[in-house]
């Protein structure tokens, strides 16, 4: 009898301990904001758990996912707006900012209004972009590396471009050279992940560039393992089902030109040492190169666009290390066939797309998207930049980036791929 009582007491104590552990755990996760409804929230039938689509998707969830979803659903307290004080601060900062950063003063901003021109039916445009992406992801005759793997097959380190905002239920996959600096700024303002003298930033352009690109500033999927341990992948899946997921893309060849201009035509110490020196040695036969970029530029030693293309096509490059994020393919950064994105923006229609997205996210009253650079690399530059690149190289380069062209609806650059 005594043993039976002790056993029952042990079970009760263990149960209490587990409940307390779960409460503490989810308190850290932030369940108050976990099921925030955005304009993209999937509809669910009455009685269904918010964020989980009824039917096969729900049945297919692993036991742990089902348990976590039910736990969250049973404790849900709707909290669809941020505090009044924070909102007031954000609204105050939504006017035209004072640009203090040197680089951005040099580049200049285009503050002109684009709403009156190129009026687009954004809803139809999004339907078409998503249809194109899903059709080619489902097309077995169109193949590219990593296409067939599942989300569980994606290594943790490849999820480092997925930024999470739990306050508003948003996931943004950033693509370098596609307005990612300003989208990161927007995410910092919305998530309040960075403070200025104890107060969250309310104006995106007030945030210094060095803070914007500091990895510690953002909560990304690859950090979940360190925070949530074995539950991390389950938590990612639930957030992917509920949160609004977006990315912005760009014509792949134009993105390469922009990356080259940014990293090799301007003095950049890191990129000179990591990439320019090996390129100059391998493809321009230079030896005894200066150790600093300023000395190299002073001596007229710069990587040519031809050197850069050879580097991308060289099989040895990927054997040494994966492509740098500034020229890595979008399908490798954002996994569009494994993640069902709710919004696909394009740099070519940045102003319209950004304004529409902020409206759909119901945050347009809090901030405006920062303006475009006046001297943004243009699609019309392609012919000039690729004029001296051999035809065979151009064709190989297209094959290397073909998936990005096709998945995101960019036309094949026939004029560059034929004599």
Amino- and carboxy-terminal Cα gap: 92 Å
> If helices are DSSP runs of H or I spanning 4 or more residues, what is the number of helices?
20
Broad structural category? alpha/beta
Report on the biggest sheet: 4 strands, mixed
Low-confidence segments, given as residue ranges, are 23-62, 71-119
Mean pLDDT: 81
- How are the strands of the largest sheet arranged? 2-3-6-7
Order of helices and strands: HHHHHEHEEHEEHHHEHHHHHHEHEHHH
Tally of extended strands?
A: 8
The coarse overall form would be: globular
Roughly what fraction of the amino acids lie in strands?
5-15%
Radius of gyration: 24 Å
- Helical coverage, percent range: 40-55%
Membrane topology: Single-pass type II membrane protein
GO molecular function: sulfotransferase activity
Subcellular location: Golgi apparatus membrane
GO biological process, one term: proteoglycan biosynthetic process
Write the layout of secondary structure elements.
Layout: H1 2-29, H2 56-60, H3 63-74, H4 84-92, H5 102-107, E1 109-110, H6 122-138, E2 162-165, E3 170-173, H7 180-191, E4 195-196, E5 199-200, H8 209-212, H9 224-228, H10 232-242, E6 244-249, H11 252-265, H12 269-283, H13 293-298, H14 305-313, H15 315-320, H16 330-334, E7 343-346, H17 350-360, E8 372-373, H18 382-386, H19 391-407, H20 414-417
Parallel strand pairs: 3-6, 6-7
Antiparallel strand pairs: 1-8, 2-3, 4-5
Helix pairs in contact: 3-10, 14-19
InterPro entries: Carb_sulfotrans_8-10, Sulfotransferase
Protein name: Carbohydrate sulfotransferase
Family: Belongs to the sulfotransferase 2 family.
């Amino acid at each position: 009898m005594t043993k039976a009582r002790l056993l029952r007491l042990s079970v009760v104590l263990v149960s209490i301990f587990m409940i307390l552990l779960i409460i503490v755990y989810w308190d850290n996760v932030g369940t108050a904001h976990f099921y925030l409804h955005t304009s993209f929230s999937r509809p669910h039938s009455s009685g269904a758990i918010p964020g989980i689509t009824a039917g096969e998707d729900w049945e297919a969830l692993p036991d742990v996912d089902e348990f976590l979803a039910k736990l969250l659903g049973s404790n849900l307290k709707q909290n669809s707006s941020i505090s009044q004080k924070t909102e007031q601060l954000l609204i105050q900062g939504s006017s035209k900012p004072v640009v203090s950063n040197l680089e951005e003063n040099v580049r200049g901003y285009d503050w002109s209004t684009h709403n009156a021109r190129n009026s687009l039916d954004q809803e139809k445009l999004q339907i078409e972009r998503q249809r194109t992406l899903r059709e080619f992801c489902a097309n077995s005759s169109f193949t590219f590396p990593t296409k067939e793997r599942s989300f569980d097959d994606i290594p943790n380190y490849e999820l480092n471009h997925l930024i999470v905002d739990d306050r508003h239920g948003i996931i943004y996959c950033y693509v370098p050279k596609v307005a990612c600096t300003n989208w990161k700024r927007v995410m910092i303002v919305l998530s309040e992940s960075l403070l200025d003298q104890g107060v969250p930033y309310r104006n995106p352009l007030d945030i210094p560039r060095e803070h914007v690109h500091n990895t510690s500033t953002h909560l990304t999927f690859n950090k979940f393992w360190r925070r949530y341990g074995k539950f991390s992948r389950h938590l990612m899946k639930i957030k992917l089902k509920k949160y609004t997921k977006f990315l912005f893309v760009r014509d792949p060849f134009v993105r390469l030109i922009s990356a080259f201009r940014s990293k090799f035509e301007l003095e950049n110490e890191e990129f000179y040492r990591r990439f320019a020196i090996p390129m100059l040695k391998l493809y321009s036969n230079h030896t005894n190169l200066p150790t600093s970029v300023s000395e190299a530029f002073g001596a007229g030693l710069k990587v040519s666009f031809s050197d850069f293309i050879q580097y991308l096509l060289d099989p040895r490059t990927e054997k040494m290390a994966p492509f740098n994020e500034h020229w890595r393919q979008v399908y490798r950064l954002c996994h569009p066939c494994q993640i069902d994105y709710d919004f696909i923006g394009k740099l070519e229609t940045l102003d319209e797309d950004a304004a529409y997205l902020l409206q759909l996210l119901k945050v347009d009253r809090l901030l405006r998207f920062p303006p475009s650079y006046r001297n943004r690399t243009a699609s019309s530059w392609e012919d000039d930049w690729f004029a001296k690149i051999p035809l065979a190289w151009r064709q190989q380069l297209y094959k290397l980036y073909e998936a990005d062209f096709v998945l995101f609806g960019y036309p094949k650059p026939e004029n560059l791929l034929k004599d």
